[in-house]
């Protein structure tokens, strides 16, 4: 058994110790926010925090994670209220969303070190690949997250996730509000 702390919870895994941590998290712990991208450490989709440092989980084995503190995107904030998550939404940096968890984890680790990173700091600390090309908005989003983290700014444009059934129903007519299509008897 390999023991570690994942998102604040002690967990034990009875798996091959050579298994890449990305598979342990996704398949055994059901933490699917950590994405499997290239499997070679190039894309950053599987970025997590290991003892506070942003690392690619496809390059870490289960054995190497023993006794360590692991944080995944699910552990960054339970309600997506982390400044990085809010700023990524507010700055419209999310396209398909596949790379977003890895980017958020890399950016959060950077902002723990410096809440006022330069563009060069961001490019060095967030090497993630994004096929949708969000890079032009990414720098501003991460700098904005730093301002939010230090309470220099608030974000009201990025609400907490989810929408109530009542609010969703407002945009679509209720079935009782629409008449069924009429059929000609000849049809």
TrEMBL record:
<dbReference type="GO" id="GO:0016491">
    <property type="term" value="F:oxidoreductase activity"/>
</dbReference>
<dbReference type="InterPro" id="IPR012675">
    <property type="entry name" value="Beta-grasp_dom_sf"/>
</dbReference>
<keyword id="KW-0408">Iron</keyword>
<keyword id="KW-0001">2Fe-2S</keyword>
<keyword id="KW-0560">Oxidoreductase</keyword>
<feature type="region of interest" description="Disordered">
    <location>
        <begin position="159"/>
        <end position="187"/>
    </location>
</feature>
<dbReference type="InterPro" id="IPR036010">
    <property type="entry name" value="2Fe-2S_ferredoxin-like_sf"/>
</dbReference>
<dbReference type="Pfam" id="PF00111">
    <property type="entry name" value="Fer2"/>
</dbReference>
<protein>
    <submittedName>
        <fullName>(2Fe-2S)-binding protein</fullName>
    </submittedName>
</protein>
<dbReference type="GO" id="GO:0046872">
    <property type="term" value="F:metal ion binding"/>
</dbReference>
<dbReference type="InterPro" id="IPR002888">
    <property type="entry name" value="2Fe-2S-bd"/>
</dbReference>
<dbReference type="InterPro" id="IPR051452">
    <property type="entry name" value="Diverse_Oxidoreductases"/>
</dbReference>
<dbReference type="Pfam" id="PF01799">
    <property type="entry name" value="Fer2_2"/>
</dbReference>
<dbReference type="GO" id="GO:0051537">
    <property type="term" value="F:2 iron, 2 sulfur cluster binding"/>
</dbReference>
<dbReference type="InterPro" id="IPR036884">
    <property type="entry name" value="2Fe-2S-bd_dom_sf"/>
</dbReference>
<keyword id="KW-0479">Metal-binding</keyword>
<keyword id="KW-0411">Iron-sulfur</keyword>
<feature type="domain" description="2Fe-2S ferredoxin-type">
    <location>
        <begin position="1"/>
        <end position="76"/>
    </location>
</feature>
<dbReference type="InterPro" id="IPR001041">
    <property type="entry name" value="2Fe-2S_ferredoxin-type"/>
</dbReference>
<dbReference type="InterPro" id="IPR006058">
    <property type="entry name" value="2Fe2S_fd_BS"/>
</dbReference>
